[in-house]
Amino acid sequence: MNCDQAxxxxxxxxxxxxxxxxxxxxxxxxxxxxxCREALAxxxxxxxxxxxxxxxxxxxxxxxxxxxxxLDPGLVERHLASCPRCAAELEMVTTSRRLDEDDKIALFxxxxxxxxxxxxxYRGWRATALAASLAGLVAVSGWVHSARQAERFEAGxxxxxxxxxxxxxxxxxxTHPQAATVLSVSPDEAVERGKAGQIADLPAGxxxxxxxxxxxxxxxxxxxxxEIRGDSGGNPLFTVHGVQRNQDGYYTLSVPKGxxxxxxxxxxxxxxxxxxxxxxxxYSVRQP
Amino acid sequence: MSVDERxxxxxxLKGETEAVGTVDGWISRAAWPYQRRLAExxxxxxxxxxxxxxxxxGQGKFRGESTLRTYLWRVxxxxxxxxxxxxxxxxxxxxxxxxxxxxxxxxxxxxxxxSARQEDKDLLLRVLDRVPADCRDMWRMIAAGLSYREMSLRxxxxxxxxxxxxxxxREKAVSVRRxxxxxxxxxxxxxxxxxxxxxxxxxxxxxx
Lengths: 288, 208
Fold this sequence. Notes:
Chain A is of the alpha+beta class. Chain A has helices at residues 3-14, 20-32, 34-50, 56-63, 73-82, 84-101, 128-141, 147-173, and strands at 182-185, 200-201, 208-214, 223-230, 233-240, 244-245, 250-256, 263-273, 276-287. Chain A contains 8 helices and 9 strands. The longest helix of chain A has 27 residues, at 147-173. Chain A starts with a helix and ends with a strand. By secondary structure, chain B is mainly alpha-helical. Helix content of chain B is 72%, strand content 0%. The two termini of chain B are 14 Å apart.
């Protein structure tokens, strides 16, 4: 490996994603080349620049409605517009502030994110991920404004979880979903160019629809989120964190009965890594 | 500080059940949005927050410039954000042997870890603001732990081309930083490498 090749590999040497052979070659080269070690130091310097985020005190000030005094407001605004991680953190701080100010917003226990990639055992559909996340989302969206409403909502989710137990057994027996309520949906990207997109109809009358969203991409993210929007676009109606992806390349989402009004919806899946996320597939579904 | 709040702090520090319950309720509520991101560490983080609150109130840091509840909200927000950020911070401990074998790189300035801590945040944010958006996106993917092959697939760019683009972005960022440092008067330039504020609980909220 020569200097030019080694220097090109340095960012991935730092994030530890080179293959073992490549990594060893870069390391051996660095041990004998002071010029490339300087390049390594410069790469780390660049990493620090690109990994800059707004200070926590700035986000806290913004959530309090104050103008940050330590940074140029224009710079703050531009950074927030271009940095998904800071935008997401500001959203969390703002939500926290809102909860702190309004005791009428009910809270539900959340579900922690998965911390590692799937380990290989196919455990069947785990649709409760949506239920827990949905509950959290409803709370922060301010849709549930009283403890009584919250209790009813939780009771509904609990009964759905009980109903789901049988389906989980059926689905986990084979490789592919067997239960009648499971709907396989292809990503919009799979539709041939020039043809109208296929819209999958959710089963009418089912207590709950489990969507198996097929993906053609490799499983390269630690975690996945999904946003559900109405056909007119706008803000997401639901944001689901910790979406499951199984070994067959399906993301699974559960849609409790009554959570969607009749209409057409777009589901956008995001890959989540570190503090940022990347838009992946979109899917179109219709609630009759 | 109102009499009620002073009394609440006193009762909390004495461990009176009702006061502890009230403060704990405020803390849990303020911390709720961070729960998902802190996942398995959640209980530990909540405990850290409680300890920090007890420490700050015990030291009389709360002076009533805001309500007690807002003060506690600040403590919760800073602690949770710091914990979330610490999770995604890269540690390059395995590079120590390489750096130790290179006197020239180290002797050019203070130790890298120290200079990293001392870089002025404002300067680095301004540098970042001046580099092209596609550079920021590519380096964000690197910081998120994507391999060059994954990035090449995602961006539909040949692997070799991608590596060169990333290298150009690195050079661009370093050059912008050099330019900005060059534009600064000596005094400001020195300030740019002074110690940044301690981001622990004491310094984060101006009142803490």
